[in-house]
Design a protein that fits this description.
Strands 1-4-3-2 form a four-stranded mixed β-sheet. The protein is globular, with a radius of gyration of 23 Å. The protein has 22 helices and four strands. Strand 3 and strand 4 form a beta hairpin. With 458 residues, the protein is an all-alpha fold. The protein folds into two domains: 324 residues, no CATH class; 57 residues, no CATH class. The longest helix is centred in the C-terminal third of the chain and has 31 residues. Pfam families: PMT_2 (PF13231). It is a multi-pass membrane protein.
């Protein structure tokens, strides 16, 4: 009991931040957004199919890549939803709850990562607090997006990587394993992981730590083997070519740092952000500049890792068509929160006599900014984004149990499966498929008593 009391006392503020995060993410989680998007429906139903039959909607036994619509979803988040649906059933709550849990772990992981970099508890707490309330991360951490799992494992991999430098070098092997899991959680980390690991491999080879490198490389090679079938034998490569950007990559890259994007308009995708709301607060504009100045003036070379991660974070968004893209550049969110925290710390330290008062004022201003964001989210977001979340299909399939529904704009069959909780065996035995498109997407022509033509004839 004394150990528990001591732990709570030593980590009281971090615990409060975690409760703040949980409270704001669980708030009306099944109601806002108003309905599940087709990716959430696909994740939820494939998890339900695995839970009840051991196979996905295509009949594949415990797959590492879920064909879904043909874009091959990654396994980590879907299997997390399997566990959630075991408790809550095939519901929006079950699909979205793992994102909240992963988000919570990322808040804690960021605290540990910053503490490992700075040995400064205040800086670590500020980083976690700002990350927990940043608009960039808010919607993603309460909806069924795979990205939360990838980000969480990536942050914890960085943390263990940092610990491995001063402690056991074999922590790097565990770090490599977490990097691999992040890459099997969200596609952005399939691009970022090789960059980070490649640099670290070179460092360890320079230090003549050949055994550690060899074991980590074996883990990496083993993780790549399942990708061969996906990109060579299936349609994963054509999917990659389809989403790839043919625009000027330099221009694409710097769009992710546009002040208008960061502070004014944000991601224009209504599933990513409240309309006309920046990815960051206006307050961040000042503290990001001061935070970078703090890093450059510090005598701690470890802090340059933060800038390095910031520089590589937009790469996944840069090389794809939609850009800037908050989801694909998700690593920018915690890193910018850390830099803002450095800026807040640096600014308050300039006024030594009133440091605590000034720090309190800044935290209150951030809290008020978050309160304003939460109010807008709770009162306006559903009205602004219903169609983006395909609410119309929820209205149809919660009532309609048969008939014709046009597939002109989406994949209506997956909503029928989700909202009707169709038995996976019944779906597999009664469905009829349309031809697979050139880049792998497959549509369902009919199943059971439903038909999904381009246009329904009266």
């Amino acid at each position: 009991m004394n150990k528990i009391i001591r732990f709570i006392k030593n980590n009281f503020v971090l615990i409060l931040i975690c409760f703040l995060f949980l409270g704001t993410r669980l708030f009306r989680i099944s109601e806002i957004p108003s309905s599940v998007y087709w990716d959430e429906a696909s994740i939820g139903y494939n998890a339900y199919s695995v839970l009840t039959t051991g196979r996905d909607e295509w009949g594949e036994f415990m797959p590492l890549h879920f064909r879904a619509f043909g874009e091959f979803k990654l396994p980590v988040y879907i299997y997390s939803v399997v566990a959630s649906e075991f408790i809550f059933g095939l519901t929006p709550l079950a699909v979205r709850l793992p994102a909240v849990m992963y988000g919570l772990l990322s808040i804690i992981g960021l605290y540990l990562m910053v503490y490992e970099l700075t040995k400064n508890k205040l800086l670590s707490l500020l980083s976690s607090f700002l990350f927990s309330i940043t608009p960039w991360f808010f919607i993603f951490s309460r909806t069924g997006y795979e990205v939360t799992a990838g980000l969480t494992f990536f942050i914890w991999a960085i943390y263990l990587l940092l610990r491995s430098f001063e402690r056991s070098k074999f922590l790097f092997i565990i770090s490599t394993f977490l990097f691999v899991i992040s890459a099997y959680s969200y596609n952005s980390f399939r691009i970022l992981t090789p960059i980070v690991l490649g640099i670290i491999f070179i460092y360890h080879l320079y230090k003549r730590q050949f055994v550690v490198v060899a074991l980590s490389v074996l883990i990496l090679i083993a993780s790549v083997v399942p990708l061969y079938k996906l990109y060579k034998e299936d349609s994963g490569l054509s999917r990659l070519q389809t989403v790839g950007s043919k625009s000027n990559l330099v221009i694409n890259y710097f769009k992710n740092f546009s002040p208008k994007y960061l502070f004014v308009s944000g991601d224009t995708n209504l599933r990513s952000q409240i309309p006309q709301t920046g990815e960051l607060y206006y307050l961040d504009a000042l503290f990001l500049v001061l935070g970078i100045l703090y890093i450059l003036k510090s005598n701690n070379p470890k802090l340059y890792l933060v800038l390095g991660l910031l520089l590589i974070a937009p790469i996944p968004a840069t090389i794809t068509k939609e850009n800037p893209h908050a989801l694909r550049a998700i690593l920018m969110s915690p890193i910018l929160s850390v830099i803002s925290a450095f800026g807040v710390y640096y600014f308050s330290s300039l006024f030594t006599k009133n440091k605590n008062i000034l720090l309190t004022i800044i935290i209150v201003l951030y809290a008020l900014s978050f309160e304003g964001y939460m109010y807008k989210f709770g009162t306006e977001y559903n009205n602004l984004s219903r169609s983006a979340w395909q609410h119309e299909y929820k209205q149809i399939f919660e009532k309609q149990k048969e008939g014709c529904v046009s597939d002109e704009f989406a994949q209506p069959y997956i909503f029928a499966l989700f909202y009707q909780k169709v038995n996976p065996k019944e779906f597999i035995t009664t469905r009829e498929l349309n031809p697979v498109s050139d880049w792998g997407f497959s549509t369902v022509k009919s199943f059971g008593n439903f038909d999904f033509p381009k246009i329904c004839k009266n």
